[in-house]
Amino acid sequence: MRKLSLFIATSLDGYIAKPNDDLSFLKLVEKEGEDYGYENFIHTIDTLIIGRKTYDYVLNEIGSSHYDNGKRNVFVITRTEKPSIGKTTFYTGNLAELVRRLKSENGKNIYCDGGAEIVNELLKSDLIDEFIISIVPILIGNGTRLFKDGRPEQYLELVNSKRFDTGLMQLHYKRKRK
């Protein structure tokens, strides 16, 4: 069975965005030639799940090929129906049902790149198998929290931790099944 991995960055105080969906704090750890393991990680997946706001941000900042490279399926979770573009599907159905279906299919692993609503919906349904969380050395104080209240308790097992010279700390956990 395929696994669903969350690969995401957060501030030390747990925010994935400042108010108004501002991701500028991520620039604090940008360093030429350093991708924090993203390139290696991306080769393990062939399917991506992403929220519409995160998708729109990346589309505007980087371009559509960052996600849809013609080789992987992209599911943009949205409330507004839109026709598919290339391998990108704008999905308006039940997220848990989609993930369960994708996990049962053959292929590489599945990558969730946010946003917070998507992550927390997946946590409520106990569908995230692996967490790779990069902690940016900043306290933001306000914005969009990565983890929200109202989800079940879940046990994790540390796979690896890595410190980078930019001050970023990356934690890699997998679900510990009871």
From TrEMBL:
Gene Ontology molecular function: any one: 5-amino-6-(5-phosphoribosylamino)uracil reductase activity
| Protein name (record) | Dihydrofolate reductase
Pfam name, any one: RibD_C
InterPro entries referenced in this protein's UniProt entry, alphabetically: DHFR-like_dom_sf (IPR024072), RibDG_C (IPR002734), Riboflavin_Biosynth_HTPR (IPR050765)
Organism field:
Sinomicrobium weinanense
A GO BP term here is: riboflavin biosynthetic process
Q: Tell me the first and last residues of the signal peptide.
A: none
Show where the Bacterial bifunctional deaminase-reductase C-terminal domain sits: 3-168
